[in-house]
Write a structure and sequence with these properties.
196 residues; alpha+beta; Elongation Factor Tu (Ef-tu), domain 3; 2 domains; six-stranded antiparallel barrel; six-stranded antiparallel β-barrel; 5 helices; globular; Riboflavin synthase; transferase
């Protein structure tokens, strides 16, 4: 489980089915088997070497996320899994990316992103873009807009996004479960009890 609060911007050293990332700030106390969100994708540390972390990436993950398009030297957002005694600053983020969205517009601190499923986006709700917890400003058709505060622009890779870039999208976990509950064939009485 993650929060969408980025700890470090890492650098891709080699990109393939084994991802090598330069991460001097978090590598020190990261252990083999730990979970790290890389641009919002939960990956397991397979090896470690001083200030580098290595991850084995499945073919399906490369196809379903934007990780497959990363080139050597690319910057990525990194967050270690939430500790039980840590401060919870963003929202519940599983690291299971729902889809790769497409940046439609970048205007100073505003990002507009095209997605395939607007039913899981709510105005003033949470969404994760490349691992960063953000608040949805508006939704229209299959587009949603988020605003980026100066701190987010400085401490994540979102400030370098351009029109046409692919981004990892994870919808709000709670909204996803609620939609799943509503779409199951539960008796209406049970649903009313849950909602009211």
């Amino acid at each position: 489980m993650f929060t969408g609060i980025i700890e470090e911007i890492g650098r891709i050293k080699t990109s393939d089915k084994r991802l090598e990332i330069l991460a001097p700030e978090i590598a020190g106390d990261t252990k083999l088997g730990d979970s790290v969100a890389v641009n919002g994708v939960c990956l397991t540390v397979a090896a470690k070497e001083k200030d580098k972390l290595f991850f084995d990436v499945m073919e399906l993950t490369l196809q379903d996320t934007m990780l497959g398009s990363l080139q050597d030297g690319a910057a990525v957002n990194l967050e270690r899994a939430l500790r039980s005694d840590g401060r919870f600053g963003g929202h519940f983020v599983s690291g299971h990316v729902d889809e790769a969205g497409l940046v439609q517009k970048v205007n100073a601190n505003i990002l507009q992103i095209k997605i395939s499923n607007k039913t899981l986006i709510a105005v003033k709700g949470s969404v994760t873009v490349n691992g960063v917890s953000l608040t949805v400003q508006s939704v229209e058709e299959n587009l949603f807009t988020v605003s980026l505060v100066p701190h987010t622009l400085q401490t994540t890779t979102l400030g370098s996004l351009r029109t046409g870039d692919s981004v990892n999208i994870e919808y709000d976990l709670l909204l996803r479960y609620l939609q799943n509950l509503i779409m199951t064939e539960q008796p209406k009485a049970d649903l009313k009890r849950f909602l009211y």
